[in-house]
Amino acid sequence: MAFPKATNRDLNYADDKGLRILSLDGGGVRGLASIICLERLMYRLNKRRGPGRDLKPFEVFDLIGGTSTGGLIAIMLGRLRMDATECRKAYVNLMKTAFQGEPNFVQKVMRFGSSSGRPFYSSDGLKAAIRSVLHNAGFSENELLIDDSLDNCRVFVCATSSRTTGLKIFRSYELANENALDSPTIITAALATCAAPPFFDKVQVGEAYYHDGALKANNPIFTAVEEAQNIWTADDSPASLENIKNKVRCIVSIGTGDLGKHAVGDSPIERIKMLIRLATETREVHGKFRSTWGEVFRQRRAFRFNVHQGLQEIAIDEFNKVADIIQATEEYLNEGDIVGDVLDCIKALDSDVRKLQYPRIKSNPSQFAPKPGVFIKREALLRKTEDLFRLSDKQRSIRTIVNIFGRPGSGKTELALSFYRENLKSFTTIVRISGQSKENFSHELVRFYKSILAPPEAHAGAFDDQRPLLIDNHFGKVTEWLNHTDNSKWLLLIDDVYPGYKEDVLDQKYEGSRPHDFLLEFLDRIRQGSIIVISRQELQLRGSQSLQVTALKLEESLQLLKDTVGDSLHNSDNGKDPASF
């Protein structure tokens, strides 16, 4: 289902708190300058806020949008929820991978002038680099761009249609005239917004092909404003622009440096002209925006940061100029006027900054734990389980996986639940999920999300449509909650895990001891906390420890029998003790 163009919650939030919007220009490797500017803003903002956990950009900004590599940065900050420093480090590595095998001047001229239109670089390198960023951030390469929780920071990236040259917006949110099923994956959206000709080939999304958005909106500030109108105003009337101006508490536009007229050095003439046009367009767009939003600038609610000296000679694919970019940006940020702009900007950002949107468990912590059954307390196994976890706060900040395995009926699940009950004060919640199949696993993960973590809108029906293409989004939200730095005191119990198999599970014809890929992929996303995986045989799980539950001893079996039937055996007519049978 499509969300309304502007919900009451959106309108109320915009009125009560004010909106914070971040717009990021394109610029290839010079996008590093944008990240450094943002890194300075976030450092000053967190220092102003005093002791406590540092905020990340997605916790400060309600909307982050970008073009080309600015779009890639927007995804990293808003969709992958990186902090600015993480983003900077990942971005440098990504650029090095994407621009490997740089062609020389002659090769560039020949490729650019050939009828084949062969790009300077392979898109495979860029795709591999983006895939690595997703993996390191705990996301699957199949993760969709759309993120349908209304509490999240919204993200958009710009691309250009290869056929119509029209601007295409890929969003992490859904507008009234869109269908979430059309959402691309994060990788596809990132490739599309970065596919700058002649550097990379066009990218197919659905039935259409796209180049990077810099050809239409290298400075996407007006697109950001239009998106804000679509989300946070109730209509499309001309008055809505003035309405959104009043709702904005702080809007920040960050460029990738003034290129002047010496953008690319040894590149072909046509390429120089293209880059100069793009550089001129960003200046012209900012000039128009400042004219349109002049009052907001004067009120110190709108800011533009753009390095004006030192980046003129750096081409967008010269990743070996990282040191030069850093030096030029640091010099820019230390200029007197810019220092003042930074201080004014963080004052605007800090004013009534929104509270963290990470959900907290409000219900009974054991809501998702099953009722205890009849169980023989096996002290040795219980102590062994506790030893494997070592429930200190420091230990829980690192992921601990214990694979409890044994024959059916040996008490594997009850051992896990007994461990939880014995250490009740050590956990905020327990979540039990069936790992028997991907269908069961996905269904119960979505149920947990809807019942505990989802915003109120989910209970009004917004999440009733459990479309398979959106399952990964719920995976992302749950793993995000599990990985949150203030939330490591949980126990995740994954029961009934079968290895990969070729034939029917009921026939127990297993193929090795490696679990299904969906479970391995999910576990790879988790970076902290306590996880118990229950199976009939020992599994191959990266970084796990194993504990075998063997058959009950005779005295334990008798105790289980007594606990099950009570005193009826002692009170029976034969008067025999159970041990005599």
From TrEMBL:
Superkingdom, taxonomy of origin: Eukaryota
PNPLA domain residues: 22-225
Motif GXSXG: chain residues: 66-70
Residue interval(s) of motif DGA/G: 212-214
UniProt entry keywords in alphabetical sequence: Hydrolase, Lipid degradation, Lipid metabolism
InterPro entries: Acyl_Trfase/lysoPLipase, P-loop_NTPase, PNPLA_dom
GO molecular function, one term: calcium-independent phospholipase A2 activity
BP-aspect Gene Ontology terms: arachidonate metabolic process; glycerolipid metabolic process; lipid catabolic process
Gene3D superfamilies noted in UniProt: Cytosolic phospholipase A2 catalytic domain, P-loop containing nucleotide triphosphate hydrolases
Motif stretch (GXGXXG): 26-31
Catalytic center residues: 68, 212
Listed GO CC annotations: membrane
Name the UniProt record assigns to this protein: PNPLA domain-containing protein
